[in-house]
Specification:
This protein folds into 3 domains: 10-50, no CATH class; 52-94; 165-341, 2-Layer Sandwich (Nucleotidyltransferase, domain 5), CATH 3.30.420.10. By secondary structure, it is α+β, with helices and mostly antiparallel strands. It has helices spanning 118-129, 135-146, 152-161, 163-173, 222-235, 250-258, 277-290, 299-316, 327-330, 337-341, and strands at 22-27, 33-37, 43-45, 66-71, 75-80, 88-92, 183-193, 196-205, 211-217, 242-245, 263-266. The protein is elongated. It contains 10 helices and 11 strands. The chain starts with 21 loop residues before the first strand and ends in a 5-residue tail after the last helix. Helix 4 (163-173) crosses helix 8 (299-316).
Length: 346
C-alpha cells in the first residue's frame, strides 16, 4: 500500500503590504526564522521577539539597554544599543574549571629497574637541562668519557622519566614558600610544537626569581592568561603588591579576577622604571635551552620537558644574582646541596 503524506502550510503574509510573495531570509541572533517580502522588502519574523536585554546591565554612559557583543571564557563584552552612544564595557563571569588542563604524567620515583647506574642518569639530566646539550651530543659525551654506548632514544626517555615526581615535589613545596613580594611579572614567548607556534605563558616572582606558574597554549586569548594566574592561586595564597605585564589586553580580566587587591601595571617600554627585564632574563635562559631541541614533537612531550626545566630552574639551578642560591631557597625552602646534586631523587 502506498502511503502519501500531505503537508499543509498556512500562508505567510507581509505585515506591511499583505503580500504572500514571501521567502526565507536567514535567522536572527536568537535562531528565529526571518522572512522578507519580495515586493516591499520588509523583513520580519512570525515569533514574538525575545527581549534582548533581559537581565543585562544598563549602559553607564546613556543608561540605555545593552546587548552581548562578544562572549569569552572569562568575561562578557557588552555594547550599548544606542547607536549614537555605542559604548562598550566588559564584566567578568565565573570561570569554568574544566578549562584548566591537568596532566597525569607517568613517572618513576627511584632508579630501580634502570640498566645504567644512577650517576650516569643524573649526569644526563644535568647535561640536558643545564648544559643545553642535545640527546645525540650527550650520547657522544658518554662514549668519549665513559666508553659507554647509550642510544639517544634511551637518553630521550630518561629526560622525561621523572617529570611526574618533579611536578609532585614542586606542588608539595610551593605552598610553604613565601612569595608575598612587591612585584610579580607575567609574559609570554614563542615555542614550536610539531612545527606550529605555541605561546608559553610565564609568571615570575621578582624577589626570588621563582617561576610560580606556566601555561602552554595555542592561542593568545584571555583564557590561557586566566589559567596562568588561576594556577598560581591554587599553588600559593600569596598576593603581590603589583603585577607587571605588557599592554596585551588578555591580562586585564585575568589579573582583576584572580588578584583584585594587586595593582596591575602595564609598561610601555623596557626603559621604564617598572618593566619585565626579570622575566626577559628568564626567557633568554629558556631559549638557550630550547634552541638545542629544535622544537617539540607533541604537546604532551612539550609540557613534560618544560615542567622538568622549570623544576630545575626553581629548585636546582644556583643563581649568581641570588648569592648562588636557588630561587626555592630564597623563598624559604630548606634542603641541602646533596639534594641538589641528586635532583631530590634519593
Amino acid at each position: 500500500m502506498l502511503c502519501i503524506i500531505i503537508y499543509t502550510f498556512e500562508k505567510i503574509t507581509c505585515p506591511r503590504c499583505f503580500s504572500t510573495d514571501i521567502y526565507r531570509f536567514g535567522k536572527n541572533n536568537f535562531g528565529i526564522q526571518k522572512y522578507q517580502c519580495k515586493h516591499c522588502k520588509r523583513q520580519f519574523t512570525l515569533e514574538k521577539p525575545i527581549s534582548k536585554n533581559k537581565g543585562y546591565p544598563k549602559c553607564p554612559i546613556c543608561h540605555k539597554a545593552t546587548y552581548i557583543w562578544h562572549k569569552y571564557d572569562t568575561y562578557l563584552h557588552f555594547k550599548c544599543g544606542n547607536r549614537k552612544c555605542n559604548y562598550s564595557f566588559k564584566l567578568p563571569i565565573e570561570f569554568d574549571p574544566k578549562l584548566l588542563k591537568s596532566f597525569n604524567f607517568k613517572t618513576k620515583m627511584s632508579f630501580k629497574r634502570f640498566r645504567h647506574p644512577a650517576n650516569i642518569i643524573l649526569l644526563v639530566l644535568t647535561l640536558y637541562y643545564d648544559g643545553n646539550s642535545s640527546t645525540r651530543a650527550i650520547k657522544r659525551i658518554l662514549k668519549a668519557i665513559f666508553n659507554l654506548t647509550v642510544s639517544h632514544v634511551t637518553i630521550w626517555n630518561w629526560t622525561k622519566s621523572f617529570v611526574g615526581w618533579f611536578n609532585y615535589i614542586s606542588n608539595k613545596i610551593i605552598p610553604f614558600l613565601n612569595f608575598n613580594s612587591d612585584e610579580w611579572h607575567a609574559d609570554e614567548t614563542y615555542v614550536k610544537v610539531k612545527g606550529i607556534d605555541y605561546y608559553l605563558w610565564i609568571l615570575l616572582d621578582s624577589e626570588t626569581r621563582f617561576i610560580i606558574s606556566f601555561v602552554l597554549s595555542l592561542s593568545r586569548s584571555s583564557t590561557p592568561a586566566y589559567q596562568l594566574f588561576k594556577n598560581a592561586t591554587f599553588l600559593t595564597r600569596a598576593s603581590p603588591a603589583m603585577i607587571i605585564t605588557d599592554n596585551w589586553d588578555s591580562y586585564n580580566q585575568a589579573t582583576a579576577l584572580n588578584y583584585p587587591n594587586s595593582v596591575h601595571h602595564k609598561y610601555s617600554a623596557f626603559s621604564d622604571d617598572l618593566n619585565n627585564n626579570f622575566i626577559e632574563s628568564f626567557n633568554k635562559t629558556f631559549k638557550a635551552w630550547y634552541k638545542t631541541k629544535k622544537g617539540f614533537k607533541n604537546f604532551e612531550s612539550a609540557v613534560a620537558l618544560i615542567t622538568t626545566f622549570i623544576y630545575y630552574y626553581n629548585f636546582l639551578h644556583e643563581h649568581s644574582s641570588l648569592n648562588n642560591l636557588t630561587p626555592a631557597m630564597v623563598a624559604g625552602a630548606n634542603y641541602s646541596v646533596k639534594d641538589i646534586k641528586n635532583w631530590m631523587l634519593f
